[in-house]
Amino acid sequence: MTYTTKSGDSFDLISYQQLGSELFTPQLIDANPEHITTFIFSEGVELTLPTIQAQASTSKLPWKN
């Protein structure tokens, strides 16, 4: 899957909006190493969106699983 940036996008914003959490920012950066030094994107940059696997809950509270 790919995403084409809008002017002003950043890795953490794209991660939050497209992948569901800013916690996936490292995976997004890893999928696009050629842009590792980009802080704010201009419009029209095509990025690869990584596949994010659903993680099982590790909660010890049974009602939270």
Strand order of the largest sheet: 1-2
Distance between the termini: 29 Å
* Number of strand segments: 2
Helix count, per DSSP?
A: 2
- The amount of beta strand, in percent, is 5-15%
Mean pLDDT: 89
Give me the secondary-structure category.
alpha+beta
Overall structural domain count: 1
Helix-residue proportion: 10-25%
The largest β sheet comes out as: 2 strands, antiparallel
Compressed to H and E, one letter per element, the order equals EHHE
Low-pLDDT runs of 5+ residues are none
Question: What is the CA-atom radius of gyration, in angstroms?
Answer: 14 Å
Shape estimate: elongated
What is this structure, in a nutshell?
With 65 residues, this protein is an alpha+beta fold.
Q: Explain this structure to me?
A:
- The chain has about 60 residues and is an alpha+beta fold.
- The chain has one domain.
- Helix content is about 25%, strand content about 10%.
- It is built from two helices and two strands.
- It has a two-stranded antiparallel sheet.
- It is elongated.
Notable traits:
single chain, 65 residues, alpha+beta, 9% strand
Tell me the layout of helices and strands:
Blueprint: E1 2-4, H1 11-19, H2 25-31, E2 46-48
Antiparallel strand pairs: 1-2
